Amino acid sequence: DAGVTQSPTHLIKTRGQHVTLRCSPISGHKSVSWYQQVLGQGPQFIFQYYEKEERGRGNFPDRFSARQFPNYSSELNVNALLLGDSALYLCASSWGARGGETQYFGPGTRLLVL
Amino acid sequence: GQSLEQPSEVTAVEGAIVQINCTYQTSGFYGLSWYQQHDGGAPTFLSYNALDGLEETGRFSSFLSRSDSYGYLLLQELQMKDSASYFCAGAFSGSARQLTFGSGTQLTVLP
Fold this sequence. Notes:
Helix content of chain A is 0%, strand content 50%. By secondary structure, chain A is an all-beta fold.
């Protein structure tokens, strides 16, 4: 079975632009979570979606938004990009919505904001 | 808030045993996970402790003590391929169902 897939793998944007990152979970998984990982730090939670509903939101500004589609894939949108948004954006899927469940991470999208 | 503390770096030699500790804040805590991440790669799940005690999975074991707000990951028979970053991640109750990650421990295995 395919693992979690993310696209694109790399992205370069300029300040003020917006970006859309995409994630396809493992088949059968209904929960998708998004994390931001800055170099040298642990992943930081942005959103969790389960059955197309937002189940959790981390401490990120309203410039960050996400949604989940009927096929459980997900998009993360970031508006008005700042230099500090440069990071690895990770998507993780799990079968259910419990926080302690094993999460399976995708390879990430590396975003560079210039 | 929810935070986890772990050492930033650990170095050991091939074949040795290494323990990576993690302490956490207790408010709403209900479980501790460990993830491994190689440079440029995705975090991969290693273990999860919801109850006190030791969980063993091959060369890796994880321990949790709720009374001490403390857990550790034990890696035995170290191999060069174990060089990576290791993250403890806490699951906390509340409206946000999420994992809160520590800042990671960079393990270097020397020949």
